[in-house]
Amino acid sequence: MLFLGVDGGQSSTTALIADETGRVLGRGADGPCNHVQSAAEGREKFIRVIGGCVRMAAREAGLAEAMPAFRAACLGFSGGPADKQGILREMLAAEELLVTTDAAIALAGACGGRAGIITIAGTGHISMGRGADGRLARAGGWGYIFGDEGGGFWIACQAVRAAMKVHEHWGLRTTLHARLLEATGFAEANAMMHAMYTAEWPRKRVAALSTIVDEEAEAGDAEARDILERGAAELMKISAMVRENLFGYDERARLSPIGSVWKSRLMRERFVELWMGANGRNEFGEAAMGPAAGALLEAFRIAGLRAELRDLPASEK
User: What are the CB-based long-range contacts (under 8 Å, 24+) for 114-117?
Assistant: First the structure.
């Protein structure tokens, strides 16, 4: 019996094939596959990248068939499963097929298929968990209009707000004003702010400016530090809500951080302070495995099996 796990994202795609004992036999990787939508080129790219990764993993595994049959397959995508399910049923021969979100496979990987919580803070945010009884819960992930507080885009927006207040002479003095103008190449904050409403400044480009906030906070800027502390408090809110929905107060709850925002020492330390201080049974630690391994664990789960993965490539740990 063979099992397939795929992590398909906006930056890369990874496929893992394992046997029924949980031994990983092969890995295949390629670029992004996520955007299917209705355009023919998007669909073609999706099929090419997913198919290529599976075939690469099958070759590494030494399998005779380029596209082998699977007892179960799980594929997770950052854009959601709705527009991909039908395509994958045509592509893959799998007795059981689960097409789900990137957060779901990240959770499975981070917790090794066991109970636990992840809080993802990249461009946006989301917290997700699985209880000891197998129930799932999530909080956040609503997107930049209705949420994403504590994510990179939100952090950058708070910095621009602070710069605009300085520009209009009603804000606190902050080094963020000069640093943002230097980084974006604008002569004044008003022009910078208006440019960020255009297609020239997509959310990821704006979110990348969040590193400036971290640098200035480390250098002692009070406004920058306040933004990070508020961001940590927002991430704590969604994390605490997931805990409350899945775990009793006296139950152990382990949370793993995922995403680029957690590289900020100050934000991370403030979050840990809040998380550990809220409940003596709370734990905080790095993810056990990556999302591709999580997808593989989910493939075993939907087949009614539990496996301890072995021979996992170092890149997936």
Answer: 115/246, 115/247, 115/254, 116/253, 116/254, 116/255, 116/256, 117/239, 117/242, 117/243, 117/246, 117/253, 117/254, 117/255, 117/256
Give, for 229, the enclosing helix (H) or strand (E).
Answer: helix 222-246
Q: Is 255 exposed, middle or buried (0-12, 13-18, 19+ CB in 10 A)?
A: buried
Identical fold between 2-112+290-316 and 113-287? yes
> Do 11 and 28 meet the contact criterion of CB atoms below 8 Å apart?
no
Other CB atoms within 10 Å distance of the CB of residue 47 = 16
pLDDT in tens, 160-214: 999 999 999 997 889 999 999 999 999 999 999 999 999 999 999 999 999 999 9
- Share of residues in the chain with pLDDT > 90 (%): 79
152: left (phi over 0), alpha (psi -120 to 50) or beta: alpha
User: In this predicted model, what pLDDT tens digit does every residue of 205-260 receive, in sequence order?
Assistant: 999 999 999 999 999 999 999 999 999 999 999 999 999 999 999 999 999 999 99
pTM surpassing 0.85? yes
Provide the b/e sequence for 179-190 (b: ≥16 CB within 10 Å). bbbeebebeebe
CATH code matching the domain that covers 113-287, chosen among 3.30.1360.120, 3.30.450.20, 3.90.650.10, 3.30.420.40: 3.30.420.40
